[in-house]
Structure formats: C-alpha cells, structure tokens
Amino acid sequence: MSLDKILVQINTEAQQKAEQILLEAKEKAEQIKRESLEDSRLKKEAILDRARQDAQDREKRMVQMARLSGRKSILAEKQKAINFIFNSAMNRLAGLNPGKYKQILRHMLIKAVRSGREEIILPEKDKKLIDDEWLKGVNREISKARGLPGELKVAKETRPIKGGFILRDGLVEINSSFEAILKYNQNELESDVIALLLENS
C-alpha cells in the first residue's frame, strides 16, 4: 500500500474516530443536561414540599398560639369577674346595717371561740359599734351554748381589716376577718361563681 493511501486511510479513520468522539460527547452532554434538569426538578419539588410543610407547621403553631392566647384572655376575664364578685361581696358584708352586722359578728364569735377568754381585735370602724351590753350578751350565749367561761374582751388595738374580727388568746390568733374567710373559701366558691358566670353568659 502506498504512503498516500495509508495517509488517506489514517485520516479517514481519525475523522471517523473524531466524529464518534464528538457524537458520544454530545450524547453525554445531553444525558448530563437531562440528569441535571431531572435533578433540578427533584430539588425544586423537595424545596417546595419542605416549604409547604413549613407553612403548614407554622399555621398549626399560629392556630395553637391563638387558641392558647384566647384561653388565657378568657381565664383573665373570668379572674377579673371573680375578683370583682369577691370584692363586691366583701364590700357588702362590710357595709351591712349595724344591726345585721352585729348579728353576724355574734354568730361568728360563738362559733370561733376556743377558750372563752380571748380578746377580740376589731377594725377601727367597729370599735364604736361594739358596746358593753352587746358583749355581755355574746358572753352569756358563749357560756350557755358552748359551756365556756364567756369572758371575751375587746382589745385596745385595731387591725386594718374590712370587717369581722381576729380572736387572740395569748400568742394564738384566729383570723375571722371577712377577708380571711373569703380567701379561705375562695377556691371552693370560685367553681360556683364560674358556673354562675357561664350560666348567665
């Protein structure tokens, strides 16, 4: 075979090889492009799915927070209403007419005494209301109903209470102020008050 023919053959083979390499490169490039597009599509879908899930989670959290905030507001309003009712009850008790007020004090004293020799500590406003005659009557009832000495005395000191009294026997004090009684019974009474509030709402 002549040199020219060999060169032509080598050239032809080289051209065919180059075309084949170019074709394979194009196919590879197309494949990479397709894979890249698919990969981009999958990544895009994953990002959108994550964004949708985040949005749903955020919405759930916001709804839960709104519900919690609503519950807190309702509880705060109920507490305001309860406090108003208890304060109103306190003011009504403290503002009773003298006859009714003394009657309630008498009943409370007879139940509260332990030794029959206690001192009665009153609010300043009640010092003038409780006279010797009334106290003698209470002492007689304590002796008769409870079998105790009936030697209660009104203390010289007063306390900043709205109504009721504090019984002192030596170092022991029994707080029978209206504030203490209402506070002591508040938990028990609150459920009744809430039921009334709900009934009337």
The averaged pLDDT comes out at 83
Order of helices and strands: HHEHEEEH
Uncertain runs are none
Q: Count of DSSP E strands?
A: 4
User: How many domains, as an integer?
Assistant: 2
Mind explaining what this structure looks like?
This protein has 201 residues and is α+β, with helices and mostly antiparallel strands. It folds into two domains: 94 residues; 103 residues, ATP synthase, E subunit, C-terminal (hypothetical protein PF0899 fold), CATH 3.30.2320.30. 72% of the residues lie in helices and 11% in strands. The chain is built from four helices and four strands, in the order ααβαβββα. The chain has a four-stranded mixed β-sheet with strand order 2-1-3-4. β3 and β4 form a beta hairpin. α1 packs across α4 and α2 packs parallel to α3. The chain is rod-shaped. The mean pLDDT is 83.
Can I get a quick summary?
By secondary structure, the chain is of the alpha+beta class. The chain has helices spanning 3-94, 98-112, 132-146, 178-199; strands at 119-122, 153-158, 164-169, 172-177. It contains four helices and four strands; from the N terminus they run H-H-E-H-E-E-E-H.
Tag the structure with descriptive keywords:
alpha+beta, hypothetical protein PF0899 fold, 2 domains, 4-stranded mixed beta sheet, 4 strands
